[in-house]
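[Meeting: bench + compute handoff]

Bench side (C.D.) handed over the final construct sequence. Compute side (W.E.) agreed to return the predicted structure before the next meeting so the bench team could plan truncations. Sequence as handed over:
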Amino acid sequence: MFRASEAAIRLLTEAQARAEEAYLAAEPPPLALPGREEPPHPTGGPPC
């Protein structure tokens, strides 16, 4: 049982490291600058 838990921890740690590397390597989302025209609100109402 201990070896299975140890293997699971190792697997999750490696998956976490890969996810963090992929996140850091990805392009950042575009910035929304104040004063620029924003897309319409999805519900059709004014933005909050």
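W.E. noted at the follow-up: Helices lie at 2-25. C.D. will use this when planning the next construct.
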